[in-house]
Amino acid sequence: MVDNGNGLDMHVLEAGEPGCPVILLLHGFPELAFSWRKVMPVLADAGYHVIAPDQRGYGLTTGWDADYNGDLASFRFLNLLRDTLGLLSRMGIDKVDGLVGHDFGSSAAAHFALIRPDIFRSVTLMSAPFAGPPPLNPPPAIDMDVELASLEPPRKHYHRYYSTRPANGHMWAAEQGIHDFLRAYFHMKSADWEKNQPHRLRGWTASELAKLPTYYVMDLDKTMAETVAPEMPSDAEIAANAWLPDDELRVYSDTFGKTGFQGGLNWYRCRFVDAFVREQQVFAGRSIDVPAMFISGKSDWGTYQTPGALEKMETTACSDYRGTHLVDGAGHWVQQEQPGQVSALLLDFLRELA
To answer: Domain coordinates of the chain in residue numbers?
Structure first.
């Protein structure tokens, strides 16, 4: 536990020896520092000091506001960066050789590398491409909520759903129980779910977004718990799951059973606050200038869920881009589903920079 000087007592997992080059691992939703359990020992054995915190809103980290009506501004990217800078300072770390973020942690890592390249010497983004900061003069916005709702059957985007007041309760008090909800959720977004056959979308239109699975573009009248329930794996499939056995899933279900999901959902809510978007426009036109690469699962729709983002990351958002790696046998939870391949990619990347 580390007091980060920004209101949090942060729970941190560590592997390797202090004083060695530092790798900082940032998890996504609905994940924890525990999500990096399979890669941390490998990276430490290669000579790195590996750090994985439960981020603001998650796990055993305390001091964050779990009230829907609470301090939403504390979850915006600049304050998340302040959280991380405070953590590193309290741990006596002034440079991070490898910054790695997965899912929403990828978005956080991208902003951290964009804003403080003097601290973060390289960045690996996983499962969520970074298209760059918002422009100062964006094109007229499409009311995608209306467009999706007009489809047959009517749909809604999961970001919008995650921003609603009932979303936390729908998952925390899911009819099937939080453990089975998470089992179905992790399964449906993994390579184990055979319907995950991702491909590029032609544009940000309702008809194209409707091609995404319902865990991204949901049926309008369904909760997330109701969305994933029909895809609950069988007892035999659960018993055969080597990447997320039931005792490891229990760490997630027990933890979120205590905290709820509102902390993580607040990250999504920040996307819809104009003041926070305008704050990010301060960095309009800037690129990530430290060496960068992208890792995702071949069966991960997250690579393509925002049309054009992957291409922008590869061409303009990162000025020193070192490659896109799509990992066989992995869906969205790539560092859990294929930790060996992910560890090898990270080590090759960092050794190339040494």
So the answer is: 2-137+275-353, 144-266
* CA pair distance 68, 269, nearest whole angstrom: 10
- pTM here is 0.98
DSSP 48: -
What is the topology classification, in CATH, of domain 2-137+275-353?
Rossmann fold (3.40.50)
- For the chain, first and last CA: distance in Å? 30
| 335 vs 295: CA distance, rounded Å | 9
Please answer whether residues 292 and 137 qualify as being in contact, where contact means their C-beta atoms are separated by less than 8 angstroms.
Answer: no
Residue pair 293/326 in contact (Cβ under 8 Å)? The answer is no
φ, ψ for residue 101, nearest 5 deg = -135, 140
Chain position carrying tokens 């994940």: 31
pLDDT tens for residues 115-155? 999 999 999 999 999 999 999 999 998 999 999 999 999 99
Rounded to whole angstroms, how far apart are CA atoms 178 and 292? 36
Is the separation of the CB atoms in 107 and 268 below 8 Å?
no
